[in-house]
Amino acid sequence: MNAPLKEREAALMGMGDSRLRKEDARFIQGKGNYVDDIKLPNMVYMDIVRSPLAHARIKKINKEEALKIPGVLAVLTADDLKPLKLHWMPTLAGDVAAVLADEKVHFQMQEVAVVIAETRYAAADGKEAVQVEYEELPVVINPFDALKDDAPILREDLIEKMEGAHGKRHHPNDIFTWQAGDAEAVDAAFAGAEVVVKEDLLYPRVHPCPLETCGCVASFDPIKGDLTTYITSQAPHVVRTVVSMLSGIPESKVRIVSPDIGGGFGNKVGIYPGYVCAIVSSIVLGRPVKWIEDRIENLSSTAFARDYHMTGELAATSDGKIQGLRVNVLADHGAFDACADPTKFPAGLFHICSGSYDIPAAHCTVRGVYTNKAPGGVAYRCSFRVTEAVYLIERMVDVLAQKLNMDKSEIRKKNFIRKEQFPYTSAFGFEYDSGDYHTALDKVLEAVDYKGLRVEQAANRADPNSKTLMGIGLVTFTEIVGAGPSKICDILGIGMFDSCEIRVDPTGSAIARMGTISQGQGHQTTYAQIIATELGIDSNLIRVEEGDTDTAPYGLGTYGSRSTPVAGAAIAMAARKIHAKAKKIAASLLEVSENDLEWEVDRFKIRGNDDKFKTMKDISWAAYHQPPAGLEPGLEATYYYDPPNFTFPFGIYLAVVDIDRATGVTKVRRFYALDDCGTRINPMIIEGQIHGGLTEGYAVAMGQLLSFDAQGNIQGNSLMDYFLPTAVETPHWETDHTVTPSPHHPIGAKGVAESPHVGSIPTFTSAVVDAFSYKGVTHIDMPHTSFRIWKELKKHGLNLN
């Protein structure tokens, strides 16, 4: 009971401990429970008929042959959904999207009809038997073409609606034009600038491609009027609200369950037509309906990421001090505006694009447009377009350094926000909470011997017979996460708070329920560690539950690196409410004033007397057995945390690449990643999250691409073509950290899982471009495949035969 302090701290396995993940024992034994593992009595299966064309009128849909197939129970089209007013549905971005194509299709692989059958095989056969007659229409794939005067009108349902959810639409294919910053101040900065640089940058369309595709099992009870849906969702409570709004079923009778999820990365935030159709089918048939998409469907029709056409401009002094930033973006949103961004920010948090730099004047304009591509624009392992913003500013700082013949590390040091400037208000109005960029950069440069690398590179360039080109990439990024403060962040009018409910049992164990949902982040472990430190309960004795809207308090889910910044804060605050009550009970048990007590790891003790104490286990029993007079029994609390601000994790990444001059193959010789996520809850889990994010960043920069031909046919929509790196291709990662806690967060944590994805992508591009920079090359668009790099080598006479 009175073990040494260090022993008791270690026994808790609380914050700062690299304890093993609690959830892994069942995963490595195949005991996970995913949506496709759900099997309900009398369950039937749904498959989806999809359009082979990108833009066409639907002349006729013939169900007859499909309905003849044994086992096929029903075929539903938009006409069947119209009486229910479910053929269109609202998107999270204020637009509407077709649930099933209504009179025309807007992109290849759009949902046209659904087939419900007794078996998956019968459903698949029925899908093939549905006959659809199309009339082809002109296709628009390029967003610049979409805004031409003679461009085909893609959204005929919006012809009379030139006022969109985010203001006036200036063209029938317009979605919004959004601006942030001070345009006049920027114009003045450019007018007086000694140096101006400008660069066009394409951030191509990619896809999160989680290991598990999307799916659901919908089960409507016609007797009770209850709807239960097991679903691959990163935001189950939001889904519950939307399903209730769409179906008219009271929200109290809708239960959404997100079981184990095999990766999300933003792809599982939105609500897809397959979900709605499965729910309608279950209501119509009175039986559970399962729908699981295949990989081609996932890559072709669910939410993509990026597709930003950006033009960046910097105004600076001749010695490299940045005076102004101007950004113009054309954002390809596809057929419907289905981004999952906070309502007030149609371009997400792209206006973090001033980055880690003290830039006095900045302005950005983002124009969203419709094209004949699948809708989306989700935050693929980032926080609402932050990846695009970081890519823009980091590439532009490199371009400026090259123009001035400055080293890319020196120009960053010259423009960094200094430690003493925090909290710092950017030109876009964000208040950065904390940072120490100079210290972090110096640590990285020393660790990799940056000066030595530059000497080696100079020798490499001086050797005309060298078989490789050497490139050094450097990125110093700041992310904005923890959405979000309800005063500026909401989805469908619901503030982006999050929640936690903790119950401590009489015997001293605990259960905690949150409004988030893990997709591999290790919530069951890290959340328990927060509670362990706050309440002095062994983290092994704390059970964490998420994903069931019948038991979890309402929350906005997991995406945008908001779990620790928002839910983690709710956990700490709920624990502190319990801690305050526990102190009252301890004072009663020890017959002293609360002021006479002090907290020590797992107990309250009388100040100055180590032998007089009550542990949390003692207090838990007393809470249910003999609570003090006037204090209600039990030991539990609920907390809804609405953050006062975002958090701002940052990182310094450096890559060294060697490009084979004969083949264009790029080898990553070294990648050094320093992250600062504030307080570190579990260093081992942080390491794993960083490795995952870096690997996904490597995939995006070096190979991932969803492209389309002129007819709108999607290219590379299977894993035969879409690049997912294995252990064979993945480079070796070196990781490091500094700790700069967030001053407004209850435990000082900032979030980390998305930073490595955000920061690594421009680092790879920086390294590749750096290899060619001595030939005057300022930028090369992604992905940096061997063939593309070989063409670049040949273009500049650097290839070896």
Topology:
Blueprint: H1 5-12, H2 24-27, E1 44-50, E2 56-62, H3 64-68, E3 72-77, H4 78-81, E4 88-90, E5 96-98, E6 104-105, E7 111-117, H5 120-129, E8 131-136, H6 143-146, E9 163-164, E10 167-168, E11 174-181, H7 183-191, E12 195-206, E13 215-221, E14 226-231, H8 236-247, E15 254-257, H9 273-285, E16 289-292, H10 295-301, E17 305-316, E18 322-332, E19 361-369, H11 386-404, H12 408-415, E20 424-425, E21 431-432, H13 437-448, H14 450-462, E22 468-478, E23 490-491, E24 494-495, E25 498-504, E26 510-514, H15 523-535, E27 542-545, H16 563-590, E28 597-600, E29 603-606, E30 609-615, H17 616-625, E31 636-641, E32 650-660, E33 666-676, H18 683-702, E34 707-708, E35 714-715, E36 734-737, H19 755-772, H20 786-795
Parallel strand pairs: 1-16, 14-15, 18-19, 26-27, 33-36
Antiparallel strand pairs: 1-7, 2-6, 2-8, 3-7, 4-5, 9-10, 11-19, 12-17, 13-14, 13-16, 17-18, 20-21, 22-32, 23-24, 25-26, 25-31, 28-29, 29-30, 32-33, 34-35
**Quaternary structure classification:** single chain
Question: Roughly what is the average pLDDT, rounded to an integer?
Answer: 97
Query: How many beta strands in the DSSP annotation?
Result: 36
Strand order in the sheet with the most strands? 3-7-1-16-13-14-15
Largest sheet data:
7 strands, mixed
In short, what is this structure?
With 801 residues, the chain is α+β, with helices and mostly antiparallel strands. Helix content is 28%, strand content 25%. The model has no long low-confidence stretch (mean pLDDT 97).
